Amino acid sequence: MKRVLSYIENIQINRFLLPFSMLVLLFQIISIFMVLNRGFDFADEGYYILGYQANQEIFSANTYFWLIIRKFFSFIQLNISNLRIINFILISTSSLFYSVSLSKLLKTHNNITVVFKSKLIFSTLLIATLNSYSYFPNSLSYYNLTVFLMQIYFGFLFLHNAHDSSSIKLIKYSYLLFAGIALGVLFFIKITTSLILIALTICYLLLSKFRTAKAYSTSQIGCLLFGVILSFLFYFIFIQDVSAYYNGMLKAVVFYSNANSGHTLDVQFAYIIKFLAQISGIFGVSLVFLMIREITSRNIFINKRF
């Protein structure tokens, strides 16, 4: 693996990739701002805009993203243009945070930031994220907020793993606390994604007891769940009371149980299976890379006869 990285460094691949990715990103941003105040999707985007307006009631929903946005952005008018600008700012900020955190993780454990510099990671990630403008509504939606919170969550998880065991535990705990807060907010935006990520994170922290103390692993899980609880408390105190949330979710379950809705439990279960399959695919590819790294680092096939 070191030879491959050395080869990439020698040909100075970043001199080509970084300017090219920045050029593509600049073209993408200019295109987005040129059409920022043009076009409107009366189906999905109209549904999102309706929720942001005062004195409007949506019959049934399993997400309350508009209540959260109305709370945090009450100081500005939530019209079409402003919602599209907020969407762009949030996605750009989370992509930057994700890139910096990932670069720090790679530098700490693999020392390969020579190839994967933070600027290159940021530009590539933001290009991929902004591609949602080509098929999703441009206004701020629960899809965009899900991406934003997942990048924040993974960013804090990367920072948590970027510190070795000799680091101050308070710092590592704070990263897990903020990751839990992100997952807690995500619960009220995309409940299925939030529950899956919470379960996977707990499994990861439980497995980490093989390389750390069991009590330390348990305290990490407690810190993560404490962050989730803090998000719950903030939501139910300042945004929506528990009874209103429960009644709204009950209506949503009744509506989505209707076969004509296209959102039955069978369909949602199929989405979960598809998401888990994608996660498994990522783990499989990662495992292959780890095996290649192990083989090349130990020179297993050198001076061997078969």
What does this protein look like?
The chain has helices at residues 2-10, 14-34, 44-52, 65-72, 80-109, 118-130, 142-162, 169-187, 191-207, 214-238, 242-256, 265-298. The protein has 306 residues and is mainly α. The chain has one domain. Helix 7 runs antiparallel to helix 8 (169-187), helix 8 (169-187) runs antiparallel to helix 9 (191-207) and helix 9 packs antiparallel against helix 10 (214-238). The longest helix is centred in the C-terminal third of the chain and has 34 residues, at 265-298.
Question: What is the topological layout?
Answer:
Elements: H1 2-10, H2 14-34, H3 44-52, H4 65-72, H5 80-109, H6 118-130, H7 142-162, H8 169-187, H9 191-207, H10 214-238, H11 242-256, H12 265-298
Helix pairs in contact: 2-6, 5-6, 5-7, 7-8, 8-9, 8-10, 9-10
Keywords:
12 helices; disordered C terminus; mainly alpha; 306 residues; globular
* Low-confidence segments: 7-11, 300-306
Structural class: mainly alpha
The total tally of domains equals 1
Give the end-to-end Cα distance, rounded to a whole number of Å.
23 Å
Give the total of beta strands.
0
Q: Give the helix tally.
A: 12
Computed Rg? 22 Å
Q: Provide the helix percentage.
A: over 70%
Could you spell the SSE succession in H and E letters?
HHHHHHHHHHHH
Overall, the morphology is globular
Binned strand content: under 5%
Give the mean pLDDT: 76
Largest sheet: none
